Amino acid sequence: MSQLHYVPSRILRINVGFLLAESIGQSRDIEIDVDVPVSVAEDLMLDGLHGTLHLSRNSRGILVEGALRTHYADECARCLEEASVPLELDVQELYIHPAEPDAPWVVADDGNLDLAPLVREEMILGTPHTILCRPDCAGLCPDCGENLNDGPCQCAAPIDPRMAALLNWQPLAEVARDLPETSPTDPAATGSKPRSRTRR
Description:
This protein has helices at residues 17-20, 116-126, 172-178, 187-190; strands at 13-15, 27-41, 44-58, 61-75, 82-96, 112-114. By secondary structure, the chain is mainly beta. It has a domain at 9-126. The relative contact order is 0.13.
């Protein structure tokens, strides 16, 4: 039998029967401290889960409040390598008891409430729009596809179109060297006509 390298989502089922048996207003704090990957759903694996949840009994069931911290693996939007995404989940949800047909979150008849679907929903809502392996990720070269985080590729550096005209620019010294030599007193050099002397 192969060794299980993660814990299934049932670890997030919390028995609150003891709290249902108490009077309204009673509460308990529950520590969540899972260091190994947690399979929250078939399409989601979290890299650990930590935090404190405050459970309080009210007239409709159990109110769950607290904050959870976790990481999960996704693809970097720039270099396509695996990125570890940190998440802080703010949890505040009422688990109805006795269960009602249209209630999204309920305490089961055996006294258990399942946090896994709630964690999955909060994780989806809290996921950033752009995932990066690091803030300064250089991404991939658009020509050869090399990961520029590993160093520069062998492609020629792209030329800014605004600077392309300078490639044909000839330095002024070279232009002057190609001009015919002229004397400073030569009228052709100054572009002026010679003065005629007027006799008195």
